[in-house]
């Protein structure tokens, strides 16, 4: 069993859904050394999240942003946590809905994503800042 772990900082991105698969692979070249295993990607924030979805058509990511903005609106008068800005509480809710980590199988030194799958950073704040990610890969 081999275990590798790396921490990376992603540059600030605008609010929306961003494919970060290439960032993950650049940060964890040791995946090439694993024949069969798993890779966990974890975000250390409560106002951004991770998910896996369509990697080819950018309108999918635009539709994700539209859907989540409609589903979890800003400036809801019932929010109590509002001192960090109109986008803060909705960002926490969206992050809770999507989650803070994804796990991808490793097969023959590669992430076993489907042809049209990519790992998304889901940035829910208007100005979220740099994001800290922990990548852990393990296997044989």
Give an overview of the whole structure.
The chain has 140 residues and is of the alpha+beta class. The chain has a single domain, classed as Jelly Rolls (Sandwich), CATH 2.60.120. Helices cover 23% and strands 38% of the residues. The chain is built from 3 helices and 8 strands, in the order ββαββααββββ. It has helices at residues 21-27, 58-71, 88-98; strands at 2-10, 16-19, 36-43, 48-54, 101-107, 110-111, 117-123, 131-139. The strands form 2 sheets. The protein has a 5-stranded antiparallel β-sheet with strand order 1-8-3-5-6, with helices on one face. Strands 2-7-4 form a 3-stranded antiparallel β-sheet. Strand 5 and strand 6 (110-111) form a beta hairpin. The model has no long low-confidence stretch (mean pLDDT 97).
Blueprint (SSEs and pairs):
Elements: E1 2-10, E2 16-19, H1 21-27, E3 36-43, E4 48-54, H2 58-71, H3 88-98, E5 101-107, E6 110-111, E7 117-123, E8 131-139
Antiparallel strand pairs: 1-8, 2-7, 3-5, 3-8, 4-7, 5-6
Number of domains: 1
Q: Tally of extended strands?
A: 8
Q: How large is the radius of gyration? A: 16 Å
Overall morphology: elongated
Estimate the helix proportion, in percent.
10-25%
Strand content: 35-45%
Identify the strand order in the major beta sheet: 1-8-3-5-6
What's the CATH first level?
Answer: Mainly Beta
CATH evolutionary superfamily: YjbQ-like
Please state the structural category.
alpha+beta
What is the average of the pLDDT values? Answer: 97
CATH topology (level 3) name = Jelly Rolls
User: What CATH architecture would you give?
Assistant: Sandwich
Q: What count of helical segments does DSSP give?
A: 3
